[in-house]
Amino acid sequence: MIRGEKTILRPWDVADAERIARWLNDDEVTRFLPFWFPVTQKQEEAWIRSEIPGETRFAIHTLEGRHVGHCSLREEPGHARCSEVGLWIGERECWGQGYCTDALTSLCMFGFVHRNLHRIFLHVVADNVGAVRCYEKAGFAHEGRLREHRYHEGRYWDVLCMGLLREEFRERFPERWPEA
Fold first, then answer.
1. pLDDT tens, residue by residue, 41-51
2. Which of 70, 101, 103, 131 sits most deeply, having the most CB atoms within 10 A of its CB?
3. pTM of the predicted model as reported, rounded to 2 decimal places
4. DSSP string across 79-121
C-alpha cells in the first residue's frame, strides 16, 4: 500500500467489481474517460483479473478506507523509462476534494522512486477543467494539444498532452522524496 496525505493506494481486488461497474455505467463519471460503454460486473471482474504487461493498477481509498477511484501506470515499451497515467475518481461526491491530486502525487512518487521512471505523462480532454487543474497542481506541464482528437457525445474534443519529469517532481515535492 502507498499512503498519501488524503489517500491510500492498494492493489485492485475482484471484490471491487460491483462498485467499478456502477461507476463505469454512470455517464457523468465516464464523460471524459477514453471508454464510455456499459459494462457488467462479470466483465469488470475479468478486467481486474487480467494482466497487461508493464501496467500497475491501484484502487484509490480515502484514509478512512472508502474506495473512491482507480489509477494506473502503464510503462512504454523500450528503455525510455516512461509511463502513462490513468486516473479517475468514480464517487462523484468525492470530486473536488483533493483525492485525485493526492493519489496522483503518490502514484508519481511510486513511479519515480520504486520504478525508477524518468518521465510520467498523460492525455486529458481539454474541456475537463477539474482534471487539468489537478494535473497542474501535481506538477504536470502542458506539452501539446491534439486537436479534435477524440469523438464523443456527437462532437470532437481536443486532447492535451501533459508530462512530468523525475527531477521536476523531486524539486516540487521534496517532502515526498525518500532520503538517500
1. 898 888 888 88
2. 103
3. 0.90
4. SS-EEEEEEEE--GGGTTSSHHHHHHHHHHHIIIIIS--SEEE
